[in-house]
Design brief:
By secondary structure, the protein is α/β, with parallel strands linked by helices. The chain contains 13 helices and 6 strands. A 6-stranded parallel β-sheet has the order 3-4-2-1-5-6. α8 crosses α10 and α9 packs antiparallel against α10 (about 195-210). The longest helix has 21 residues, at about 50-70. It is globular, with a radius of gyration of 22 Å.
Length: about 325
């Protein structure tokens, strides 16, 4: 169990609101391994509805772990635009049904019981589609939901990223934010020479345009590296990063298998993990001869191993 005292420490450490990205991957693999591994054909999913129910239940449980540990804003990827074409029409139709699970009665009860406001971002891409496209109907359903939900500023935020294309949304940002806001940004940049101030103001402007609300730069990103091929699944947060110290964490297994103790360890390390870093010209005073020698030998051993590179999926031999 995640204790409330630790959650209080997290909230005090991040007064702006701890913000994270949960990149869900391997949902089909998780379902197959947990329910089908003894079947004659383990990879066959007979009931799409059962798979969807399983995936959302696990996703909501993990989201609750992060929210209960003190996370104020959690961005979770739901579906990507290539999903409408890469796996055929049948998959796309089923996937749209899966996405709508996020606003069914069981999920609504979860939001209310956990003091959570759900947001759905990336809808501009869906609403750009022809009205007879299944994606347009999905975007309209989420838009109608958001227009009817009673949002409150003091609630925790669960932000579902749906079919987001950052460049498309950035292209539309001027229209979304309006002429006055854009002119104010233009004037600020014109008279500003501090690059950090420019970065922060640009982030504030574009994140508000893309998310529809003010969101801090994410403090962490959690993804899965189960196959060795490290992926970046959440599009908006990645597109808006520019040299900020967002920490990236990857589990070597499908992310739906994550446990509460691991969530706590990630947040603890985020708060207390100290990297070898220097703002001077060198690292004077931070190393001993023993440390430097040990690090040198460690790096030599890794460089001698052609399989040590993170991200590899196949071996030559």
């Amino acid at each position: 169990m995640i204790d409330s005292a630790f959650a209080q420490q997290v909230q005090e450490y991040y007064p702006e609101g701890l913000t994270g990205v949960l990149s869900l991957g391997g949902t089909r693999t998780t379902y197959i391994l947990e329910t089908n591994r003894q079947a004659t054909d383990p990879g066959k999913i007979d009931s799409f509805e059962a798979y969807v129910s399983h995936a959302f239940e696990r996703a909501m449980n993990i989201s609750k772990m992060f929210l209960d540990i003190g996370t104020s804003n959690l961005i979770v990827n739901m579906f990507w635009y290539l999903g409408f074409t890469e796996r055929g029409d049948k998959y796309a139709q089923q996937a749209v049904k899966m996405c709508l699970t996020a606003i069914d009665d069981e999920r609504l009860e979860f939001y209310k019981a956990n003091n959570v406001d759900p947001y759905f971002v990336g809808l501009d891409t869906l609403l750009h589609l022809p009205e007879d496209h299944i994606g347009y109907g999905l975007g309209q359903a989420f838009l109608e939901f958001q227009n009817s939900w009673d949002y409150q500023p003091n609630r925790r935020k669960l932000i579902w990223e749906v079919v987001a294309i950052p460049l498309f949304s950035i292209w539309n940002a001027h229209t979304v934010m309006g002429e006055a806001e854009h002119a104010q940004l233009d004037q600020m940049i014109e008279g500003e020479s501090d690059l950090k101030n420019i970065h922060d103001r640009l982030y504030q402007y574009y994140s508000k345009a893309l998310y529809g609300l003010d969101i801090p730069i994410p403090h962490f990103y959690l993804g899965s590296n189960r196959n060795g091929d490290i992926k970046l699944r959440a599009n908006y947060p990645i597109a808006l990063l520019c040299g900020e110290p967002t920490r990236f964490f990857y589990t070597p297994y499908p992310s739906l298998f994550i446990k509460a103790d691991t969530v706590k360890q990630i947040i603890y390390d985020l708060m207390h993990g100290k990297r070898l870093r220097s703002e001077k010209l060198d690292y004077t005073g931070q190393m001993t001869p023993e440390l430097a020698t040990a690090e040198y030998n460690r790096i030599l051993a890794l460089s001698d191993d052609k399989y040590s590179t993170v991200g590899l999926t196949r071996g030559i031999e």
